[in-house]
Amino acid sequence: MNQTRTFLMFALMAVCFLLWQAWEQDYGPHPVTAATPASANASGNTVPGAAPAISNASTATEAGSAQSQLITVSTDVLRLTIDTRGGSIVRSELLKYPVTPRTKKDPDPASIRLLDDSAADYFAAQSGLVSADGAAPDHRAIFQSAQTSYALADGQDALNVDLTWTDASGIKVVKRYTLHRDSYVIDVDQQINNGSSKNWDGNAYRQFQRVDRPTPVYSNFLQRISDQSRFGFFGAVWYSPEQKFNKLAFDKFEKDPLQKQVAGGWVAMMQQYFLGAWIPPAKEADSFSSATVNEPEGKQRYVIRAVGPQINVAPGQQASSSAQLYLGPKLPDALQTIAPGLELTIDYGMLKIFAEPLHWVLAQLDKLTGNWGVSIVLLVLLINLVTFKFTNAQFESAAKMRRLKPRMDALKERYGDDRQKMQQAMMELYKKEKVNPAAGCLPLLITIPIFYGLYYVLRDSVELRQAPFFGWIHDLSAADPYFVLPILYTVVMLVQQWMMPTTAGMDPTQAKMMKFMPLMFAVIFLFFPSGLVLYYVVNGLCRLLQQTWVTRRAEAAQAKAA
């Protein structure tokens, strides 16, 4: 395979990849919005044999006459809003992750809001208790708080927020949130004090409730096609030691609902870059389930829930149920230490085997350089160093074919339209001159996995979100706003194409496609993350320099021999 066919195959695969992504977005399965019967809503909401049913009603319905209030809790990395109705976290702002990059005009943009109580983006972390025959506060009960604002003070490592619920029967429940400095992990403890005259039996549960992402509005076609967030998974996920990492798309909630007994697992809702995860104690056996909620005036909501084992509290005694709640970015090193398998929420898809090593190398280079763009450049140099021998063989073969071009043209003229005889004569010529026309295949086999692996790293690694390079590149995970890098790569391709020999007997259609190849790549790279285009600009320059060196050396050797 010569360089011409290498470029052609690469372009074809890139175009197929873009078409596949567009098809998945436009014609793939979408969540069902039809009303769900009440009986369907109740399915999968009880713990087998013990737990009472948990209502799927949101905090807005069946609210009762009691009024709730909102509590603000701030640390160095999180700002939470807790609703005393249910003690649910209804908003979470990630203070280190702005919605738009910081600039001189806007040095303090709004922070990413993961949990959100607006109707269009509703996403809440809820918890509660249920009991078959006793009083228990679920995610609709009204709690009391001593303060409406809490903040982690300087020098303070942890912050406790207590919410209290009491019942006339003597049952008292204290829900405590414990937040830590420089941490997105929240400890959630529900303590039950039985001041009644009879045993209290019940279960603790934790759940997420959210709507599907709203349909984005784009100002132009380029903005739409370059929005990489459309292709990331948005929905529920869960993990068990036996069945590992599992996705539960919203359109599967009614078709294939979750109902599993799991020990040592977790449930979560994830999106590009960020996730919320409920993590029960490692040895606790929980019942994982899913359900849907149909709001009378709003979007359909989806619930993923973990219900703990039965709790028994004798009169005058107390007991507690604890779990961890993670609300933050998908950072692999941090997620690995929080819970087994939580790092799998960084969704590299089928190319995980290539994407994870590439991410690791980039992360190590970033520690040295402090710039992800510079790290990408260094990654290119490392890869070219490793593959130097293979690409050298490719360019030496191309140089020989360039030298043989007059003889190949003579064969074409001799055999005319008899392609079979011409190909046979060309193979004999290759054998005699020791030219390997397949020398370009191995570099291609190395290049394509790196290309797609790096694409997923740039698309799904939160460290590269809004990571600047130099000059006009303020976000390596977004498309080049001025198309400078795609144009540079097109120029490099044109020079490489000019230096490559044209194979005799090439199909006319293929020859015409090769003339349009640089333009095709320019269009493709307009929509790709600028970090990926930067990789290929630098890689193309390295290969061009190597190709020039090999060609000149071959020409010098030929002149000396003559």
From TrEMBL:
Task: Name the residues that span the membrane.
Answer: 372-395, 435-458, 478-495, 516-538
| Signal peptide start and end residues | 1-22
Q: What is its main location?
A: membrane
Q: Which residues form the Membrane insertase YidC N-terminal domain?
A: 71-361
Look up keyword Methyltransferase and say if it applies: no
Q: Which residues form the Membrane insertase YidC/Oxa/ALB C-terminal domain?
A: 372-552
InterPro entries under this entry? Membr_insert_YidC (IPR019998), Membr_insert_YidC_N (IPR028053), YidC/ALB3/OXA1/COX18 (IPR001708), YidC/Oxa/ALB_C (IPR028055), YidC_ALB_C (IPR047196), YidC_periplasmic_sf (IPR038221)
Any Pfam family from its record, for instance, is YidC_periplas
Q: What membrane topology does the annotation report for this chain?
A: Multi-pass membrane protein
Specify the domain of life of the species encoding this protein.
Answer: Bacteria
Subunit organization: Interacts with the Sec translocase complex via SecD. Specifically interacts with transmembrane segments of nascent integral membrane proteins during membrane integration.
Indicate the family of this protein.
Belongs to the OXA1/ALB3/YidC family. Type 1 subfamily.
Job description of the protein:
Required for the insertion and/or proper folding and/or complex formation of integral membrane proteins into the membrane. Involved in integration of membrane proteins that insert both dependently and independently of the Sec translocase complex, as well as at least some lipoproteins. Aids folding of multispanning membrane proteins.
Q: Write down what this protein is called.
A: Membrane protein insertase YidC
- Give the species this sequence originates from: Dyella mobilis
Upper taxonomic lineage: Bacteria, Pseudomonadati, Pseudomonadota, Gammaproteobacteria, Lysobacterales
The UniProt gene name for this protein comes to yidC
